[in-house]
Amino acid sequence: MSGRPARRDTTSATVLTGPPGAGGYRRLAAGDGEEPLLRLDLGGSPPSGGLVSLLAFVHLSDLHVTDVQSPARAEFLDRLGDEDSPLAGRLGRVGTYRAQEALTCQVVEAMAQAVRAASPAGGPATGAPLSFAISTGDNIDNAQQNELSAYLALLDGGEVTPDSGDPDRYEGVGSPAAYDPRYWHPDGTPPGAPEDRPRAEHGFQTVPGLHDACRRTFRASGLGLPWYAVYGNHDALLVGTQPADEALLALATGSSKPTALGPGLDPVELIAFTETGPSPAAWGMLTGPTRPVTPDPRRRFVDAAGWLAAHLASPGQPAGHGVSAEAAAAGRAHYAVEAGVVRLLVLDSVNRDGGWQGSLDEEQAAWLEDELVAGHSSHLAADGRRVEGGGEDRLFVLAAHHSLETMSNPWSPSGRRRLLGDDLLALLARFPNVVCFVNGHTHEHAVRAFAPLHGTGGFWQVTTGSHIDWPQQSRLVELALDPASGDLVIATAVLDHSGLIDPRPGGLTDPLTLAGWSRELAANAWQGRSRPEEPWGRGDALDRNCLLVVPAPFPLAPAAVRAGAGAGVAR
User: Fold this and answer.
1) Assuming Cys at both sites, which of 14, 266, 327, 461 could form a disulfide with 332, CB separation 3.0 to 4.6 Å?
2) What is the set of domains in the chain, with CATH numbers?
3) Among 120-124, 282-286, 450-454, which is the least confidently predicted range?
């Protein structure tokens, strides 16, 4: 369309891994864009021209804003997944340490700048204005107050200080003062010490001053859009799996950082059950050797009420970022958003009793069913009977942290039932107006069609990767009507952040240089490579830029153009 701003997403260009060098290390390079791929898994027709936009938004996920200097982290467990570990075959990728994790604030800043640059081109289907952004959980990494404050400032815009503990020196993993050759040390090797394994075996280089640079205060740009928040397991639980008790609370704000497992602990047991429950012996963080660090009360644990209250106090728009005062007081993180003919339902899939996989409590499931009944003129009852006259038809987009496949956590010390992915799918299958479900959690792009169990329709599940692991991307999503066929088209376009593709020429005072280093380091993670050329994360081409067709569940006139997103409405 002439006069439309040029696209700044991966349909025009993208960042790719280059050829391997020493140790298999790959630099990054600019690559060609990827045209959207048509998917007719659910039926319908190829889109015609003249699509009518219903809703366009930005989908971010898994920001993992991280206090890497916190004592309440178990980086030492990550080494159990290294190739020289006898347990590597049993544990696979552990994920409690990343060479790039000190740069999470700068990555989110680089993504905010990319969102601002991409916004003038609008949605990927029609170029309609973007209504809002939504961040689908794991916005922070370790449920700490200082991480929460940084994440809010990054999305709203404001001053961000990534540092904690001693203001004069970096005290996290990889610091010269606590040299351990199993981790990457960007400042190099101290005299008389062996070279660290990432440099000796995997081709990592030195970047002197990186850990000092990443701690500097900077002013964040903000997304420049209204934005909504989704609760994730790392927002709620220490290490993403562990409810806080007195010992863990004291560890987080205290002066002793664990460096290894204590005697007699089985590392396989510590990790194996964390999908569906808290780790036995708290990940081994309470009984092993430690080293001194500077205590910091800002690292205090933040519970659901505190997380919600912080969003209410945020100066950004909309007020509360979807959270109402009533919901915050009740610790309730699910809510609804009006967006024209579309209603966005935000779910809280975190099991607050522990475990990193998700599920829903029965109270929330009842709320969800009530919301869906109110937006359907016809639906199926639980016993399969057709129910007529429920309400005025609406289209529903759902958002949660966990995908259906990862809602597999039934852990419930109280004995109260929790709904798993199959339960949620059975509920959604009764309501044909659900057309899209966006989520994150897996750190990998994925798009999956869920065919209807009754009649036509079905919905698309759109899972977007993380900001901490390769390829550090977000996604533009637009829901549009094709008047010629009556079908709905969900267009998705992946978005790279604005970090430097080659960070070497940049100065370490620039957040975009640091974000560029983070992306390159993420591309060279030595655990978890699913293909020879790069780690997992990008998915396949059919998981990235797509045109996802779904037959409209009820007749939609072209006049049903979205009116824009409204304020969050708690139920």
Assistant:
1) 327
2) 13-66+101-158+225-239+301-569 (3.60.21)
3) 450-454
